[in-house]
Amino acid sequence: MAARSRYEELARQLSAVGAVKRGLARALPPECPGGSAAVLTLLDRHGEMRLSRLAELMAVDLSVTSRHVAHVAGHGWIERSPDPADKRSRILRLTAGGHAQLDELTRRTTDVFARNLSDWSDDDVGRLIELLSRLRDSFACRGPGGCAPGSHSGECRNGPIDDAYTRTPV
Asked: Which range is the signal sequence, renumbered to this chain (predicted)?
């Protein structure tokens, strides 16, 4: 176990990650803010789904998700069609325009990382990815039904946190 001072420094560094997130947000086009990018990303990763599932994956209230969905639907990036199992519900799916927008978001985000991390080696970037994934796993599996520290298998995940949970468009 690391010393308490190391955890304090980790907390400071994670707070400072907000600057990175703001830099990424500035790369998004004005017509596609972060919430819209998250909708497109999750529909791309998980396929068509109901609004309630999308809200669960985004870990936000249904009313917030509904506003994001209305925005992306208004731009023609998704379509909403009746759910054959429940005509009161709608199934959300990406359109060709949504796929194109997501490609553009991915390009912009990747360009920001490439520009800002140009002095990092491929190994450094890989190590950061590995450690961030491990950090997410540590938080994802510590709840009820979770695994013990050091024994994560991926089977313990419950709730919206999983490998595909992200609010970034890549």
From this structure: none
